Amino acid sequence: MGLSQRNCALLLVFVAAVCIEFYQAQHVVGRCKCPSFSRPKKINITGFQVIEKWAGCDRIELILTRINPDNTTVELCMHPRGKIGVNILNCWERINKEGSRKMECIDRFNGVEEKTSED
């Protein structure tokens, strides 16, 4: 028993529709750069990166960079609603997300006070 051209065409359309549905229904889980968060008590950071929500990750991510005593660089993922995360993100908003002004937030976080000349 053979398939008529009409039935074959309908079968191809059906298979194509199913393939398109499977392709569009893919939900990629775990594509965030930070699968888990660190909880250090006190760290001296040398840099940070704020990654806004995007299609592959449904949360804001905060990645802090620090240098260990052996001069190795380590990136730590911080929870954006934790104490450290909130402080860094508030500063980031205050400087209008200008990358050239990140050192202001880093210095503030590390406890470095701005030097003012007293004349």
List the helices and strands and how they pair.
Layout: H1 5-24, E1 47-51, E2 61-67, E3 73-78, H2 83-94, H3 102-110
Helix pairs in contact: 2-3
Q: How much helical structure, as a percent, in the residues?
A: 25-40%
The neighbouring-strand order within the major sheet is: 1-2-3
Q: Tell me the Rg in angstroms.
A: 25 Å
Q: What composes the largest sheet?
A: 3 strands, antiparallel
Terminal residue distance = 101 Å
Order of helices and strands: HEEEHH
Please count the beta strands (DSSP E, at least 2 residues each): 3
From the structure provided, what is the oligomeric state, counting identical versus distinct chains? Answer: single chain
Q: Report the β-strand fraction as a percent range.
A: 15-25%
**Distinct helical segment count:** 3
Description:
8% of the residues are buried. Helix 2 packs antiparallel against helix 3. The chain has three helices and three strands, in the order H-E-E-E-H-H. The C terminus is likely disordered. 34% of the residues lie in helices and 15% in strands. A three-stranded antiparallel beta sheet has the order 1-2-3. The longest helix is centred in the N-terminal third of the chain and has 20 residues. The protein has 119 residues and is of the alpha+beta class. Strand 2 and strand 3 form a beta hairpin. It is elongated.
